[in-house]
Amino acid sequence: MNFVEFLDERFSSSQEVKEINRFGISSGFNGFKETWELDFLYEHFEADIHELIESTGYKDSDLRDEYDNEETLRMKMVWFAVSTYCLSRIDSLEEIQAQ
């Protein structure tokens, strides 16, 4: 399973996707709040997370310059990747629910 497949399973409700698009993820969402959860996701899906970030035109070094420690950087990279995923999925999730 890759990161997008994991997120497809996790975000089956368009309501959460809409909330993340509206408010961002840094306020916390179930499964993405605790440091250990974010570390687990980063460790298991590191390549996919980097790929999602790069698909937006950012480079790891763009984000790395903003954070002074590795833990915060990893947390922000996971959140950035999830936010990117949610932005790309909002329309498709709404279509699925309408059917």
List the helices and strands and how they pair.
Blueprint: H1 3-10, H2 14-23, H3 35-55, H4 60-64, H5 70-98
Helix pairs in contact: 2-5, 3-5
Would you mind describing this structure in some detail?
The mean pLDDT is 83. The protein has one domain. It contains 5 helices and no strands. 74% of the residues lie in helices and 0% in strands. The longest helix has 29 residues, at 70-98. The chain has 99 residues and is an all-alpha fold. The protein has helices at residues 3-10, 14-23, 35-55, 60-64, 70-98. The two termini are 26 Å apart.
* Order of helix and strand elements from N to C terminus: HHHHH
- Global shape: globular
Number of contiguous helices = 5
> What quaternary form is this?
single chain
Largest sheet: none
**Stretches with pLDDT under 50, minimum 5 residues:** none
**Pairing-aware structural class of the strands and helices?**
mainly alpha
- Helix percentage: over 70%
The averaged pLDDT comes out at: 83
* Strand segment count: 0
User: Please, how many domains?
Assistant: 1
Strand content: under 5%
Whole-Å distance between the termini? 26 Å
Structural Rg: 13 Å
